[in-house]
Structures are given as structure tokens and as C-alpha cells.
Design brief:
heterodimer, A: mainly alpha, 72% helix, 0% strand, B: mainly alpha
Amino acid sequence: MAYAVPVLAHHEPEVTSTGLNHRKLLMWAFLGSDCLFFGTFISTYMLYRGQSITGPTPKEVFNIPYTSVSAFVLLVSSLAMVLALAAIQRGDVRRMRIWIMATALLGMTFLGGQFYEFTTFVTHDHLTLHGSIFGTTFFVLTGFHGAHVTVGCIWLVSVFVLSFFGKIRQDNSLDVEIAGLYWHFVDIVWIIIFTLVYLVPV
Amino acid sequence: MSDLPLSPSNAPAVAAGHGAEAAHEESYGYERVAGEHAHPNAAKYVQIALILAVLTAFEVTVYYMQPIHEYLVPILLTLSAIKFVLVVLFYMHLKFDSRIFSALFTLGLLIAGGIITTLIIMFRSYFFAAITG
């Protein structure tokens, strides 16, 4: 049995029952569900904080000035991301490329910092994934956040590469906006982690 | 921009009744959906970034200030909440976009917040004790 499939012209705005773009709607639904994902890890960390029977303790291992710089780097990457979106919405593909690559590089800087921090914790402080309840909850929470940042970096580099093939244009700037939503979400999760995990005393 | 949702049933009405607005929309050069208002410009984004940077610096400063250590947790949580809201409203454009997006995100956020709060109360963690004193 054959079905008639409506085909939209290339630049024709999508018509949906809600009036909202379904990809953007899906991204927001995903971000809402991702709140639950991180919510479970954050609550687990909070529940077990200060309950480790073996060291080291958070106060012994955390380097607040160092992590503050990482938080600042991620914050600046969010600014670069919105500037990339603003550029493509103006039709300025060249500036979009600059800002999107700046965002990806700042994300990679954050990841490099996290890798160094993790390495220091393991080799110098002997804080491991299975050594204490603090190690387990800390590495799982921040590790999954790092995995999200990694996915974001790959996504941003993909957008950067696709722009050279004419796939990223002013009329489909929604592609950049959706990538931006994901990136900003990663940023707001770090805002919470930085406060609850690093700054709030045990 | 019209608050009337664009759907197959009312699309002609939107097009006919809001012709001037439609022409205005075209000047943006990119597809904007129903309920969406113009996004901020680059200067506004930089202003928000400066506020976020100042708040982050303040958070770290407060962490090292012994005299107000008693109020450290509520201060940090408030600063963190302000930063969170600023990013969501301005960088993620929820202030300007359809409220359906806000509802979807808020729903997930409320459930997550409910899970965290309930678990912490149930297990009487040290964190909850720190807030309540």
C-alpha cells in the first residue's frame, strides 16, 4: 500500500501541530531527561559525601583555584557559543567558524584540565574509582560530565567541518542553535557541580 | 511576533493576519518558530558573560572568607542558582522562546530537584544538616 508523503521545499519552514520545530523540541525534551540523569549522580554524591571511612577527603585533594579556572574556561566557551549562533543568524559563516572552533578549543582545554586533575588525584593523592565512596561518587559524576563535554566537542568540530561543505547556512542556523543548547546545558551542569562538589564544605 | 501557534489549521490565518510581522520576520534571515522573540545581540551576550564571571569570582572569594563561613552554603547556592538561571534564560533563549520548551525543561528540572531533595531528606545527609544547621 502506498502512502502520500508530504515533501517540503528546501527552505520552506516546517509546519508542525505545535508550531514548534520538532528537532528543537526533541532537544529540550532530551535536556529535561538529562537533568534526571545528572540529578541521580548529584544526589548520590551528596548522600555519601563525608561518609568515606578511608581517605583522602575532598578538602585534601581539591585545588579550588585550579578548578575555578576550569569553570571560567567553560563559562567563556558558552559566550563563544552564543556568539557563533549570533554570527550564523546574521549570515556571517566566517565568524561562526571562528567562534565555534573557539568553543570547541575551550571545551578541549576544560577536558585537558579534567584529565590532569584526575591523573593527579589517582597518582598523587591515591583517590581511585574503587578506593573509597568519595572516589566512586566523585569520578562517576564528574566523569559523566566530562563525557558530555567530549560529545559536545565532537559535535562542534562536526559543525565546523560541515560549514566548509555549505551545510551550515543562515537559513538553517537551527543546527547551530541545537548544538548550542547542548553545550550550554553542559555548562549549567558544571555550574551546579562546581558549587555542590567543590565549594560546599563537607 | 505573533503568539498564535503556527499549525496546519491556522497557518493561513497567521500568514494573512500578520503579513507585516511576516515581512519583519524575513529580515532576520533565519527560520524562527511560533512564540519565539528576537534573540539578544552580541553586546548583551558579553554583558551576561561579565555578570557570570563576576558571580564565579565572588563564589570563589566567599569560599575563602572565614567571617561569613556560617552562611557559606546558602550564599553559594544562591549565586549558583543565579548563574544557572542567567545561562538558561539568555544563552539558551528560554526567555525569548516558546513556553513549551520552558515547560519541558522545567519538568525535568523539578523531578530531578525532587529526587535530590527527597533522597537527601530520607538519608539525612550531612549536606542537609549543613543547610539547616
